[in-house]
Write a structure and sequence with these properties.
mainly beta, 1 helix
């Protein structure tokens, strides 16, 4: 049959795609949730304080639980944690000045952009540059099963300059 080899090739590709999907080699889609640190500055001076806000973005699917740990570079210290106005109204693990791990539940879920989880008041303690990031980031979908959502993390890059140099930071 003239067209038979074409059908055999088609079945081969179908088998390859099925095996790739079953083995996890398929291309992943966009993250269902993004945890981002939103600093209103790029640099501060030793002794200056500024506010970093952890935000949740979940445009495609509602998320009803988040967890992770804020990772600070040397030269930054947390002076205060603020969670008033948070999307999370049931904290399993509330972040604190001496423990930056967090986990909480958002009853009914959240689907949107820029949802505030909490803020940190940080102070520059030594000169340097580094990323403030989120380790062990997790999110659960609001799908009735608590399925894990793919999470993207967007860190903030901060520079701490010597006291008395650069522009002052306005809070």
């Amino acid at each position: 049959m003239p067209g038979f080899s074409c059908y055999r090739r088609g079945w081969r590709w179908l088998a390859v795609l099925a095996l790739a999907g079953a083995s996890g080699l398929a291309v992943r889609g966009a993250a269902a949730a993004t945890l981002m640190l939103d600093p209103p500055f790029e640099a501060l001076r030793v002794g200056d304080q500024a506010v970093l806000t952890l935000r949740l973005e979940s445009a495609d699917e509602a998320v009803n639980a988040v967890a992770g740990t804020i990772l600070l570079p040397p030269g930054l210290a947390v002076r205060e944690v603020r969670d008033a106005g948070s999307l999370i109204n049931f904290w399993v693990r509330r972040p604190a000045v001496d423990s930056l791990g967090f986990s909480g539940v958002i009853p009914g879920g959240y689907q949107g952009s820029g949802g505030e989880l909490f803020s940190l008041v940080v102070e520059g303690t030594a000169t340097g540059q580094g990323d403030v990031s989120i380790g062990e980031a997790q999110a659960l979908k609001n799908d009735g099963s608590g399925s894990a959502a793919a999470v993207e993390v967007r860190p903030a890059r901060l520079t701490v300059a010597a006291a008395g140099t650069g522009e002052p930071v306005v809070l």
